[in-house]
Write a structure and sequence with these properties.
There is one protein chain. The chain is of the alpha/beta class. It has two domains: 180 residues, Peroxisomal Thiolase, Chain A, domain 1; 157 residues, Thiolase/Chalcone synthase (Peroxisomal Thiolase, Chain A, domain 1, 3-Layer(aba) Sandwich). 31% of the residues lie in helices and 21% in strands. The protein has nine helices and eleven strands. Strand 10 and strand 11 form a beta hairpin. Helix 1 crosses helix 2. The protein starts with a strand and ends with a strand.
């Protein structure tokens, strides 16, 4: 079995931003609630005719490939793990991204776990790399689901933090001669759990086969995200979210030969500030061992690399020898974690 190394990563966010004050003005939610409770000082948003999912994925991928000193022509696999809301429907962003990058010898496919996508994409791809099925892989994820948020719909208020952007990682096995020399981190083990009772709690009412798009569905505003029973979801999620976050974190750490006392940095899905602080304290890292994404908001499966990249840029990222945890949750509901041993 081969060791797997993260040899490069990159991010991209659009230039245009929306502040917490602007979100408050648009939604009617008090500014202090948006900024302090929801944890959004500002977030990046896409112009209508630019920065589509594939564009942002290519930009992040080019940065990751440069960071890894990896030629796209050497890739064996391109995997897209971002939003299903992309340039076109029933369409492979992965194939288009691979073509635009010049990854001519790679096969491309997609993996959907919504906001839990990054740890799960790393898990699946690392398994392929360990067995020798592939040697070099590029993982990309992008989101502009902010487009799907209706700020007049109070039921969807927990999605007012949605922002836009992309991330990419390059994973290589030690079958590549210099992979270990270029390694930013060694990829270890993962864990995940799904509670399907939440599967229908967050939906876009129209646009699928159950309710195809029509002039009426557009006129009725049924093409934005909705939470049909927000209070029920909030109550049920409150009972299981923390235990499931901690379970997948502990299981991934244990499988990797670690426990919470070894943990140094957690790259975590953006969530309300109080829960982020409570969860990182429970994991034993606190504010110094995480980066709160209040300058980005929630960018679906790009959050983990955005948090890692922002921390590294600020000089607050992990040091060589540190244990890093990618920790995420996505509606459906799936909680997922992957452990990395940082090399710097």
């Amino acid at each position: 079995m081969h060791d797997v190394h993260l040899t490069g990563f990159g991010t991209y966010v659009p230039d245009e931003t929306v502040t917490g004050a602007q979100i408050a003005d648009r939604s009617g939610v008090p500014e202090d609630v948006v900024v302090e409770k929801m944890g959004v000082r500002e977030k990046h948003v896409c112009p209508p005719d630019d920065d589509h999912a594939s564009d942002m994925s290519v930009a992040a991928a080019e940065a990751a490939l440069a960071d890894a000193d990896c030629d796209p022509a050497a890739l064996d696999l391109v995997l897209y793990h971002g939003s299903e809301y992309k340039d076109h429907v029933v369409w492979s962003a992965a194939a288009h991204v691979a073509e635009r990058l010049g990854a001519d010898d790679a096969y491309a496919h997609e993996s959907y776990a919504l906001c839990a996508g990054a740890p799960i994409a790393v898990r699946h791809t690392a398994a392929q790399l360990r067995t020798g099925d592939v040697e070099r892989a590029l993982l990309v994820g992008a989101s502009r689901e902010e487009d799907l948020v209706d700020y007049d719909n109070e039921r969807s208020s927990f999605m007012f933090n949605f922002g836009a952007g992309a991330s990419a990682t390059v994973l290589e096995s030690d079958a590549v001669d210099d992979a270990a020399d270029r390694s930013r981190a060694r990829v270890r083990e993962s864990a995940a759990v799904t509670d399907g009772r939440f599967a229908l709690d967050v939906v876009m009412p129209a646009g699928g086969s159950k309710r195809p798009p029509t002039a009426e569905t557009v006129a009725d505003g049924l093409h934005t995200l909705d939470v049909p029973d927000q209070e029920s979801m909030k109550e049920r999620l409150g009972e299981v979210s923390l235990p499931n976050f901690l379970t997948v974190a502990d299981d991934a750490l244990e499988s990797s030969g670690h426990d919470r006392s070894d943990l140094d940095f957690v790259a975590l899905t953006h969530m309300k500030r109080s829960f982020h602080d409570y969860l990182t304290e429970e994991l034993g890292v606190g504010p110094a061992g995480s980066h709160y994404l209040d300058e980005f908001g929630h960018v679906q499966s790009a959050d983990q690399i955005l948090a890692l990249d922002a921390a590294v840029e600020a000089g607050e990222g992990p040091d060589a020898g540190d244990v890093v945890l990618f920790l995420a949750a996505g509606t459906g509901y799936t909680w997922a974690a992957t452990v990395l041993e940082w090399r710097g």
